[in-house]
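Q: I'm building a small set of examples for a reading group on sequence design. Run inverse folding on the following structure and report the sequence directly after it, with nothing in between.
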């Protein structure tokens, strides 16, 4: 166990400023990529061949063409990486999403024996697609709705994007630590 010294108010404020700057970068990246994000959403929701409607049908029909949904997921995933506020390391650090992607966007191609375990093999592909589509839709929605990063009372969809990029919990932690430090300062002042 290491003995870490407690954060100072200045350290917490600096960390909070770094997080807020990443939120500004995220929103700016979304706005910059908006035409591409909208094009991708239009592409995946079209009702003709190889859109969401068709590929979900392929799952229930047990058609090997259902595997093509991985390509749509990859397209969305690449767009989500492009809007990431992180320049190095994991572009999308959320562990739940990364697990969903690793299980559902494997690049696996159909084998005849897959038909014996169809749902077990193919359902994760749909799950990865739908989670990715959700984040794409939230990026578009809040990229249009927010002229600047909201400071308080954020909507759930924006909060989900902050979670995806690992920004929500650190922000909340900093705010909580800051409140505790300020409370301690006040208690110390009351003693004198």
């Amino acid at each position: 166990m290491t003995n870490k010294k407690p954060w100072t108010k200045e350290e917490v404020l600096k960390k909070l400023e770094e997080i807020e700057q990443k939120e500004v970068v995220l929103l700016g990246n979304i706005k910059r990529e908006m035409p591409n994000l909208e094009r991708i959403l239009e592409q995946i929701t079209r009702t003709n061949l190889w859109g969401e409607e068709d590929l979900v049908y392929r799952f229930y029909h047990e058609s090997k063409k259902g595997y093509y949904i991985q390509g749509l997921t990859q397209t969305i995933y690449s767009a989500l990486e492009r809007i990431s506020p992180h320049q190095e390391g994991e572009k999308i650090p959320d562990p739940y999403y990364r697990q969903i992607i690793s299980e559902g966007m494997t690049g696996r191609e159909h084998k005849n024996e897959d038909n014996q375990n169809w749902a077990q093999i193919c359902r994760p592909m749909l799950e990865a697609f739908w989670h990715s589509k959700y984040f794409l839709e939230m990026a578009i929605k809040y990229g249009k709705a927010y002229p600047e990063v909201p400071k308080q009372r954020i909507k759930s969809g924006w909060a989900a994007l902050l979670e995806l990029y690992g920004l929500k919990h650190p922000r909340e932690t900093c705010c909580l630590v800051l409140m505790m430090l300020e409370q301690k300062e006040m208690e110390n002042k009351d003693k004198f």
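Helices lie at 9-45, 52-60, 69-82, 95-104, 118-145, 156-164, 168-191.
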